Automatic annotation (TrEMBL):
Keyword Hydrolase: yes
Name of the protein this chain belongs to: Glycoside hydrolase family 88 protein
Gene3D superfamilies assigned: 1.50.10.10
Native organism taxonomy: Archaea, Methanobacteriati, Methanobacteriota, Stenosarchaea group, Halobacteria
Assigned keywords, A-Z: Hydrolase
Natural source organism: Natronoglomus mannanivorans
GO molecular function, one term: hydrolase activity
Length: 382
């Protein structure tokens, strides 16, 4: 039984309350980023790259409260997401994992399980055999046009030949789950191959990560590595580090392979060595203007989400304990309390979507809400 405290119960209740107020505000739309001062949501019609997080939040709220409005909304949003989601994108597996497999954990619904398998099959089909990567793909991400380039833009490489540090998490968990559901080794083999290439292309010797790796479409050979959402190629995008930590944690849990644990320890050591005292990083760990730059709670909550899923004894005990410390910092220092006069209860503040452009750089982010809610739910029910 995972050790928890009263603050985690209260924090989970706050986040569930926030799901309720968000649903009242957004209705059939998908929440995306919320103003940090007012809590008002910017929405998308179809969820864009992260609609599965909202569906996952709705199912967690339903599971916790039994309120049918959450289940009804989750089903309605799933229909929209399933129709709109681009299959040739690294985000497809993540969205169908949450709207599919994790929904099935609550509902035991065969249709949800089948949606999860559809996401896994799409990821396998899009996997580039020579590069050993599930590429970024063709999904146009909602955000500042100057930063989120279209795949056919003259400003950057096609998404079909571009890998990303986040793919170890966005693309692989649906494959690990599909393997456990079916026993078909193609899912596990694809996940392991991608994860092994990730070790080569995205993790530097000192534990910091690259954001992107461009590869040759014919040979699969590495063309270049660069940072898009970091301050520079010599620094480190904080959320990318968080995605990497979450993905490596899952790879180690699924395989118990020492190479994933060693890489995880290096990336966490870099995080520890470059984060402020409250364990929530600036949007770039080494931004030269720190401390006068925004933090990024989304990087912190991804790290906590990954590490608190590790065994609390043996060789991962220190990593799990570090994840718990990050989680405590988030729930005590960045979550709006009950009765806040100016903002809704249960907002996870200070998320930075896009630091270089300044887009949504001090906001509540729907994906951060999901990882906080799921982490707390897992700790309270395991």
């Amino acid at each position: 039984m995972t050790a928890t405290n009263r603050s985690e119960h209260e924090a989970f209740d706050l986040v569930v309350d926030r799901v309720g107020t968000t649903l009242e505000e957004t209705g059939a739309a998908f929440p995306y980023v919320a103003d940090g001062e007012t809590g008002k949501w910017q929405v998308t019609d179809d969820g864009n790259w992260c609609g599965g997080h909202w569906i996952g939040l709705l199912w967690l709220a339903y599971d916790h409260t039994g309120d049918e409005r959450f289940a009804e909304a989750a089903r309605e949003h799933t229909d929209v997401l399933a129709d709109a989601m681009v299959r040739e994108a690294m985000f497809c597996g993540m969205n169908f994992h949450y709207a599919g497999f994790r929904a099935a954990d609550v509902t035991d619904d065969r249709e949800h399980r089948e949606l999860g398998l559809e996401g896994a099959d799409a990821s396998v089909a899009f996997y580039h055999q020579r590069a050993r990567q599930i590429p970024l793909g063709t999904l146009l991400i909602e955000g500042p046009s100057s930063e989120f380039r279209g795949p056919d833009s003259d400003e950057g490489p096609s998404g079909d030949v571009l890998g990303a540090v986040d793919a170890i998490y966005t693309s692989l968990p649906v494959l690990w789950r599909a393997y456990r559901e079916t026993g078909d080794p193609v899912y596990r083999d694809t996940a392991v191959s991608h994860a092994d290439r990730h070790l080569d292309w995205y993790i530097r010797e000192d534990g910091r990560t690259w954001h992107h790796a461009e590869f040759d479409p014919d040979t699969g050979d590495l063309v270049r590595q660069y940072n898009e959402l970091a301050y520079s190629d010599d620094t480190c995008w904080a959320r990318g580090q968080g995605w990497c930590i979450a993905g490596l944690t899952r790879a180690y849990r699924e395989t118990e392979a020492p190479r994933y644990l060693e890489a995880l320890e290096r990336t966490v050591d870099y995080y520890r060595s470059n984060v402020p005292d409250d364990l929530v990083p600036y949007w770039d760990f080494e931004h030269p203007d720190a401390p006068d730059v925004p933090r990024d709670t989304s990087a912190a909550v991804l790290t906590a989400y990954g590490l608190t899923g590790l065994p609390e004894e043996g060789e991962t005990a220190d990593l799990a304990a570090f994840g718990e410390r990050i989680l405590e910092s988030l729930t005590t220092g960045y979550l709006t309390p009950r009765g806040d006069d100016d903002r809704p209860d249960g907002m996870l503040l200070e998320g930075c979507f896009n630091g270089p452009s300044g887009y949504a750089d001090r906001n509540e982010l729907v994906w951060s809400d999901y990882y906080l809610a799921y982490t707390l739910h897992r700790r309270l029910t395991s």
